[in-house]
Amino acid sequence: MDIVKAIETYITKMVSVPNAMKVLLLDTHTVSSTFLNIPISLTRFLCVKTPIVSLASTQSILLSHQVYLTDRIDNQKRERMAHMNNILSKAAIERLADVDEYEVVREVQEYFADYAPILPSLFSLNHIPTAARPFYGSSPNSWDAQALDQSVQGIIAVLLSLKKKPVIRYEKSSPMAKKLGVEIQHRIQQESSLFDFRGTQVPPLLLILDRRNDPVTPLLSQWTYQAMVHELLGIQNGRVDLSLVPDIRPELKEVTLTPSTDPFFLAHHLATFGDLGTSLKSYVQSYQSRSLAQGPSSINSITDMKRFVEEYPEFRRLGGNVSKHVALVGELSRVVDRDRLLETGEVEQGLATGSGADLKSVQTLITNTAVPAWSKLRLVMLYALRYQKTQASSVASLINLALENGVQREDARLVYVILNIAGSDQRQDDLFSAESLLAKGRSALKGLKGVENVYMQHTPHLSQTLENLLRGRLRDTSFPFIDGAGVNAGLQRPQDVIIFMVGGTTYEEARTIALLNQELASGGSYAAGTRMLLGGTCIHNSSTYSHF
């Protein structure tokens, strides 16, 4: 279930036939990195081949017609082939016919690519709420109608592009997960001819979860490469903005960062920050020896790497990718040091796992003038989520302390917002009791695995959910099936599992899926051969989640 290859296949078909010139047109809803750079956000597009190709939404049919009118002025009669990125409704066909007054559209095809492929096992619907595009309806338990429709369309596109007709399970405590599952099931039944795939002994599973059942994972500092870049710098459609980095060179003010176009990132996007420095040093040394035949002994730090790249223009030309990663890792290192993330990260992990953080350690960091206000607020949020029921007075005192130490009152309100949306009364599972038990076992390994383990103790709640699923212990009472799954559906072990997180997923969870897929593919697991795919409303970092 490689979601990137599915989109690459569609794009290859669209740009290959007919054998003629193509032009790329984008509407305001379609954001693309570069034409053939995957991941490419194809969240709403229309392809028109005339020899002209445009990628846009159905909203751009009129725009395409304007292109035709320009061609007609030039007296160039052109036939068109329209390609839609999802199921084409009767209304959309009628609209296309209305604007095609010169009857030049000779063929319409449906390509199911109404989502953004991020990694082979990760996709996003790229929906971060705004005033114009809300996510929730009248309450945090209800959908905005347009957001629901776009989510259904996106997941249907994923299923059709992978040729999967799944049974559907959902998190019982989430009305939004149930509503989404019901609507997807209804759409599958409506489009039964499109879902007429070759049957499998055990049907695929679509498991719909709710972000609110694990509010901790997106609030934590991250310590693996891709997740750190997104947390500290932000990754938007495969791009990273470095324009605010001190002394950054003009050509590095915005860089692309996608595994499919970057061999080093492909090899190390899941690497921990500790391992990353060693790998980057080897990468720089390799380019150094190849380009200048010079020994690597002079490179001993990030500063040395930067100096080396700046001093050798020829190497800079040949090693643009090295320059990019030196700049990225250098900036990550600078921010980690500036914001005291090692100190705050250890306390965060303690709060998340119950491995030792207490009120005093949180108070110490809140009063530390070197710790930024955002880090202080996240600590209060994590403390509040953990001790909401048992130490409510301490939560209130921490909020007041944060207000006295740089946190704005408007931001401090987010503590109560997150408790109302994802507090203990809203969560289906006891998020912290299981973590406390696991933490006791992991703490004994610190001496064996080194300091890195201190920052990697937490595992997303998704891990436990999937382990229960693979071992056949995921209870129907907590994760019921949508009607139509069959009497013995709960006893079957699916080979293909698509997980969708209502409210957004994270790169930490994506790493969990990637490592689990590696283990399952190796054949050494109790569920060998099972394949996992993760998707979400968006890909969160702590900032987007707190303001979602």
UniProtKB/TrEMBL annotation:
Superkingdom field: Eukaryota
One of the GO BP terms on file: vesicle-mediated transport
Pfam families noted in UniProt: Sec1
Family annotation (InterPro entries): Sec-1-like_dom1, Sec-1-like_dom3a, Sec1-like, Sec1-like_dom2, Sec1-like_sf
Family: Belongs to the STXBP/unc-18/SEC1 family.
UniProt protein name: Vacuolar protein sorting-associated protein 45
